[in-house]
Amino acid sequence: MPDKKKLLHKLYIITPFKDNNLKLLKKTIKSLSNKKTNFNILQLIIYDKSCSKMIKKYKTDCPIKQNKTSYFNKFIKSKSAGIYSAINEALNLIPINSYYIVIGAGDIFIKIRSSIECPENNIIFFPYKLSNSMDNKYIRKIRSIFSGMPYCHNAIAYLNDGSKYESNYKISADYYHFLKYIKNYNLTKQNLLQSFQESIFIEFESKYGLSSKSRISKNIENIKIIYKFFGVAEIFLYFWHTLKKVSNIFWKAN
Which domain holds residue 144? Predict the structure, then answer.
């Protein structure tokens, strides 16, 4: 008899929150708390101290009846500045060998099936789309690892193996984390393609995140990361992919 596939028992969701846009956070919480699953969802909301009064009022006005659902949340005041430092604080609270995903305020879980299989590759890719995109198709394509982050970091579930995000990178720590992770588990492109799971569909509020607003800093950090992992030769591949991306945008605009 074939072995039964291992099912996920709990999914941790890390949500760094510091922009004071409570409406976006409410949208994310609502999209999670109204789903019924065979596994528990625990959302760790790591908020900046500037949001303390707002979070306190929100918890008083909008309590979640957590005993009647598979969704739970916990609000944690961040002890240090920076998004990646906040994510690391949350990782310290997540048991080793548990799956987690980092989601921003405003990101919506369109669909969550009642069960999720734990893949052998220790990484899960979920289809996603952008709310302000003209294309309604969900993205399922992994880009080249030499072009920067090859898939939206908000749609990847990692196994917590004790690794932390490099907080000395202000924008591209997610790229560094991804490359370090696939190197640790010897994951190839074929492995990654096998890790797609049509269990969760996510829609993001905006495609204009921190990396989009700081393109120069992002490119500098990406080049440093590529050099560290691959050496000088692959930096030319990064430039090639970047030029290709720019040219595609130019031709679409014209």
Answer: 10-213
